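REQUEST ID: PR-0412
SUBMITTED BY: lab tech R.K.
PRIORITY: routine
TASK: structure prediction, single protein chain
INPUT:
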Amino acid sequence: MQALSIVLLLISVGTIVAPIGAVVVIYHNDLTQLVIPPQIKDIINGNSNIIPDVGHSDNGDNGDNANQDLGGLMSPELVSVQIDEATNTFNGIFQVTNPVDYDLTLNSFSTDVEIAQANIPAGNINLNSPVTVQADQTVQLALSGQWTQQAQEYIANNYPGATSMDINLTNISINVNGITIGSNGSIQISVPMNVTG
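STATUS: complete
OUTPUT:
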């Protein structure tokens, strides 16, 4: 009876340990694949065609057009903006199109902004509320933000007649479909300066 108990115990342990051991052997070169699926790892490393690489856009318009391509995932187009100069804040409406074959829900977006020419902190931008963009559809989303007095003075003193300004988006955090993607790098875009409130 004792031998039967030991045999059953060994079989139980074997049915648990053998599959785990096989998986460890299969992924012995990269054990992170045991807990992070390869698709998520590709997204984090920027190697995914699900969420294209977000990088600098140079569409050759010298900032005259507010359409800036964020790596092909969504290309926001400025629809309107309301500026409150007394509080150094703005609210902007942007139109975005979902180019992929499945729905995307933008739950949150936040970034710090700095003036590219001198790396002067210029403020921040945030998504006002979550937005779902169905596959191959276009919707509007609202962003709000504020700018610093330091940035306003720098532009007034150094670029008083500028029609556009290069800015860096830093400390970017985006949550799409429940997956949060953060970046310590920066994205440089050109924004129009001749927008009226």
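NOTES: The beta strands are 77-84, 89-97, 104-115, 120-127, 131-133, 138-147, 164-176, 179-192.
REVIEWED BY: pending
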